[in-house]
Design a protein that fits this description.
The protein is of the alpha/beta class. Helix content is about 25%, strand content about 25%.
Length: about 525
């Protein structure tokens, strides 16, 4: 392996900073829901127990107790076999390895490489914030407004109102006001009072902007605080303790469950929100790591900003498939998947691709504490066996392996929160029904699930596959389907020749050849 060219490729790729006629999937059966909680909370026991009780009552859940970490309950979960798992815990117990082990445990209920349940951590700066997270997810929510620090959503077509600051062309921003049809872009005003800046900001400003700097942070906060958006999406540099605006032009920090501006001439607290939201910092490093403290950015967003769902990385990120892929599943055919379903489906898509490359990739632990750009290629060569990996394949394998276990999902994994539909883009429907199987012809199956896909005359396969969104990280999506109910022992008929992956909760079809105005079916045998 030529490490120089491999690292150049890594730099280029970004090391830095159930559809029913398009409507929400109706509820079908009561899926088993488990709540995992410590045997005893270290403080405010009664308040934390109220969080456990609220989830138990809402979902008719089974409560399981662990004395060490949630992984202690692996055997009990395997026996219970829930479809949804919420972990209630205080932030002092939650860190990088905690999240990594939850991701791994979700795939250890049976022998296949796929996650057997959707999970989320319910926590907050304190028990009151955690309980508010539960209360906010009690009723469904449709995402209609958004603010972002990324350019990729600049069309604004998903939202009634939208505003962003540009992380590609730093100094540009855009806004789609309520009642308008499109986003209007403009240049952000510049400021000259950077003499008091220190460290990273002063060095960056002097190198890139000279004495003046676009006032990105102030513009971002003007948008965010005025709109109080349903959805916030961010990228650029971050840690467990801060979030920088694109190009390091502005900085947010946290203190006592609040966010504050740390910037010359702008020392103030960020306005507290009165409404719930979804926060997806999927382009940020480390911000999803609570780092075993109440004093993390994640806790502050959940407390003062009322993030009822928060999905972020617990390590430094560079490849970004887990985060950007989840967003791509969410906004592709909007309204089709809830936020937890979108991130779940993306992760199973990742696992299916990794399994097709090497079974070892789905189970081998990743060492985040070494120089993995140097050690990783050698380890991957061993997983590939006699096959010789190209540099591009090595990059993909390493990126997927790195991202596999490091996305934290905070919030109720069964909350029905999803994007609103985009007019004209609901161009295919998916339905499913059960039929009695012929045990003699259908491999001993007792029934079959028949999935029917109908495309409209205006159907676009490119749109179904993601319309090129964040293509450098995610590539084209397969056709995907989250089963309305979990299937028992699903398998494909021997006659099925298409590239399909099926498990208890989902189906993926790679490289579908769907055409407009057609009907397609897939049969899944089950017990």
């Amino acid at each position: 392996m030529k490490y120089f060219s491999f690292l150049r490729l890594a730099a280029v790729c970004g090391i830095s900073a159930a559809l029913f006629s398009g409507c929400c999937r109706p509820s079908t059966i009561a899926d088993t829901y488990a709540v995992l909680a410590p045997s005893s909370f270290p403080a405010d026991t009664d308040a934390w127990e109220q969080v456990v009780a609220a989830l138990q009552e809402r979902h008719d859940a089974v409560v399981l107790r662990f004395s060490g970490t949630p992984v202690d309950l692996k055997n009990e979960l395997r026996e219970l076999n829930p479809r949804y798992v919420a972990v209630v815990d205080c932030p002092e117990n939650i860190g990088r390895d905690y999240v990594i082990e939850l991701n791994r445990m979700s795939r250890r209920m049976d022998a296949d490489p796929y996650a057997d349940f959707l999970w989320g951590i319910v926590t907050g700066f304190d028990a009151a914030a955690a309980l508010r997270m539960v209360e906010h997810s009690d009723e469904p929510m449709t995402i209609r407004t958004a603010t972002a620090t990324i350019k990729e959503l600049e069309s604004g077509k998903w939202f009634d109102a939208f505003a962003f600051v540009d992380d590609h062309q730093v100094g540009m921003c855009g806004e789609k006001k309520p009642g308008e049809d499109s986003v209007t872009c403009r240049e952000i005003a510049y400021r000259t009072d950077m003499a008091g800046a220190n460290g990273r900001i002063r060095e960056f400003v002097g190198r890139r902007f000279g004495s003046d700097v676009p006032d990105v942070l102030r513009q971002f906060l003007e948008y965010y605080e005025s709109y109080e958006p349903d959805l916030l999406v961010t990228a650029s540099h971050a840690t467990e303790n801060n979030l920088e605006m694109p190009g390091s032009v502005g900085n947010l920090r946290c203190r006592d469950g609040r966010l504050y501006v740390d910037y010359p001439g702008e020392q103030r607290l960020v306005k507290e929100r009165d409404s719930r939201m979804v926060y997806l910092p999927i382009g940020n490093c480390l911000i999803g790591n609570m780092n075993n403290t109440r004093g993390s950015m994640a806790a502050a967003w959940m407390d003062s900003q009322q993030a009822a769902t928060f999905v972020g990385y617990v390590v430094t990120t560079w490849y970004g498939r887990n985060g950007w892929g989840g967003l791509k599943y969410l906004i592709t055919n909007p309204g089709r998947y809830s936020v937890p379903e979108a991130f779940y489906m993306n992760q199973q898509d990742m696992m299916a691709q990794m399994a097709s490359w090497s079974d070892s990739l789905t189970v081998a632990p990743f060492d985040y504490d070494t120089d993995y750009f140097r050690s990783g290629p050698e380890a991957l060569a061993g997983m590939a066996g006699p096959r010789s990996l190209s540099e591009e394949e090595t990059f993909f394998w390493l990126g997927f392996w790195h991202d596999r276990d490091v996305l934290a999902y905070y919030g109720d994994p069964k909350w029905d929160v999803r994007m609103q539909e985009v007019p004209g883009e609901t161009d295919f429907t998916v339905t499913s029904s059960f039929r009695k199987a012929d045990p003699g012809k259908d491999g001993g199956a007792s029934r079959k699930c028949v999935i029917t896909i109908e495309t409209s005359p205006s159907f676009s396969l490119r749109r179904m596959q993601g319309d090129g969104f964040k293509q450098e990280h995610v590539l084209d999506l397969p056709f995907s389907y989250f089963f309305p109910e979990r299937l028992r022992n699903p398998r494909l008929p021997e006659s099925e020749s298409r590239n399909i992956v099926v498990d208890e909760n989902f189906l993926l079809m790679y490289s579908p050849d769907f055409e407009p105005g057609m009907k397609y079916t897939v049969e899944v045998l089950c017990d």
